[in-house]
């Protein structure tokens, strides 16, 4: 089954919307530079509202180890997503406490895929150079380098996620900007359409 992560969750309302639509994971962005920044308190309330079945992923960018661990605990996250140029030791330290999604850019995929997939508790995620910008990746060009079991983000939405799944067969897909009416506010119709499109593409790409 292809897992579906809806990122940029900023309210209890949108957390429940995504969960009810069938999302497997929600993303909560704690990077101060993001226009979808959410507080640990609001993320905690949203996390508790959906229960333990839905994964709650805290998204961080170049933030200190203590800040990441404190925020993830306070917000009741079940996993951590790490962006930025980070050392192997740092990622290992985070992975000692939480499952980690280690984000890489397309230009770094060939060189870094083996580095991060070799760490216990770490899963690779491919994202655009400017996460949350809504610009899709060149999936065909990435096909030779995309490792099995990796997650895919970067400009995904209801209109293109089926093509992305067909090209790369990711373990999970992650969307944000194309599922919004404005940054941080989800479009209910787009969220439901995205999940349903993934489920349809999954049955076609991975027939039973």
UniProtKB/TrEMBL annotation:
Q: In which pathway does it act?
A: Amino-acid biosynthesis; L-tryptophan biosynthesis; L-tryptophan from chorismate: step 3/5
N-(5'phosphoribosyl) anthranilate isomerase (PRAI) domain location is 4-196
- For this protein, the Enzyme Commission number is 5.3.1.24
An example Pfam family from this entry, by short name, is: PRAI
Instruction: Write one Gene Ontology MF term.
Output: isomerase activity
Q: Which InterPro entries match?
A: Aldolase_TIM, PRAI_dom, RibuloseP-bd_barrel, TrpF_fam
Q: What reaction does this enzyme carry out catalytically? A: N-(5-phospho-beta-D-ribosyl)anthranilate = 1-(2-carboxyphenylamino)-1-deoxy-D-ribulose 5-phosphate
Q: Which domain of life is it from?
A: Bacteria
Record carries keyword Metal-binding: no
PANTHER family on file: N-(5'-PHOSPHORIBOSYL)ANTHRANILATE ISOMERASE
HAMAP family linked? PRAI (MF_00135)
Name the family: Belongs to the TrpF family.
Q: Tell me what this protein is called.
A: N-(5'-phosphoribosyl)anthranilate isomerase
């Amino acid at each position: 089954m292809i897992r579906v992560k809806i990122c940029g969750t900023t309210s209890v309302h949108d957390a429940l919307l995504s969960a009810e639509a069938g999302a497997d994971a929600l993303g909560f962005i704690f990077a101060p530079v993001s226009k979808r920044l959410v507080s640990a308190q609001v993320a905690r309330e949203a996390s508790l509202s959906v229960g333990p079945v839905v994964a709650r992923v805290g998204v961080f960018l170049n933030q200190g180890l203590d800040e990441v661990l404190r925020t993830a605990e306070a917000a009741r996250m079940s996993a951590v997503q790490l962006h930025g140029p980070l050392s192997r030791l740092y990622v290992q330290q985070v992975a000692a406490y939480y499952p980690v999604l280690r984000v890489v850019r397309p230009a770094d995929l060939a060189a870094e895929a083996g580095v991060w997939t070799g760490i216990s508790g770490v899963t690779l995620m491919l994202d655009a150079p400017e996460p949350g910008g809504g610009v899709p990746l060149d999936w065909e060009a990435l096909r030779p380098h995309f490792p099995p079991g990796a997650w895919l983000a970067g400009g995904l939405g209801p209109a293109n996620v089926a093509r992305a799944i067909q090209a790369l067969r990711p373990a999970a897909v992650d969307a944000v900007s194309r599922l919004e009416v404005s940054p941080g506010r989800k479009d209910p119709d787009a969220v439901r359409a995205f999940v349903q499109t993934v489920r349809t593409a999954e049955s076609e790409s991975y027939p039973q």
